[in-house]
Amino acid sequence: MSLLGGGRSRRNSYSQRRKSVAEAPSRSRKSGANRRKAVDQGKKTKRRPKINQPSFHVSSRGVLLAVRAVLALALVGLFFLGAGMGLVKAYNFCTTSRYFAITSIEITGNSQVKTEDILEACGLRKGENSLLVNVHEAEQKLVSNPWIENVSIRRSLPGSFIITVKERVPLFCARKDDTLYYVNAKGEIIAPVSTDNFRSLPVLEIGPGGDEALPMVAEFVEEFRHAGFPFDISQISWIRLSAGGGFELYWETRRLRLSIGVENWKDNLRRIASVVTDIEKRKETVMVTSIRAADGQVWMTKATNQQ
Fold it and tell me: What is the pTM of this model?
């Protein structure tokens, strides 16, 4: 019994050792695989680093401040909305109320342009709402008229307008391209002469070389008015500018031709004015046909029937 029993014991122990030996490689293989897996995971971990996302902390105080800001913005928006609606209603009321209807239009300074033409040009009419009138646009429409140099329109609420006009003053008539035009003292063309605006004015003629004296016409007219002539410039039939004759004038009432040299023309003008005044006082004007002042001297030409 002991031998059998002992034999079993040895076989069992041997078989157990063999089994343990046979199982050992599998454990070693498993452990090696686990090591490789751990190495691979380590490599993967190095290749894909972990991203730390920021964390947000929302407190009850922050929520309360955000709600307050939203409410404040809402209140501001409601305020502007209400103000806008109020302004629209006020504008509609003012532009439709009879309280602001135009009741008075006063026009001053016009002599060439008729009052009804001014009202038609600027578009002002009684009964219309005064707040709807564009003053700047109305002024621009009036300035487009060749007779009007500048204009000022003043609105006086609730329904009054004052229009102040400054017109261009014609001093001569000048012919250009077979058309007769009104010309001011600066030689600027105003408008064509017509039966509606006819005025008896001297004709301005430009002779050879007279273009150089044209810029002096305005000053010449002003000096003429203060030189002491016994007649007004409106009594002159024509004025001619030329290099040789200077300023030439024809006094139609006395049939007298006057010539003023361009050089030192102011002195020449005073000398010839003194001579004309003297012969007019002595009633000898009819005995003279022309007078010329130049180079500090004055020459007179007597009528042929008086010689």
Answer: 0.57
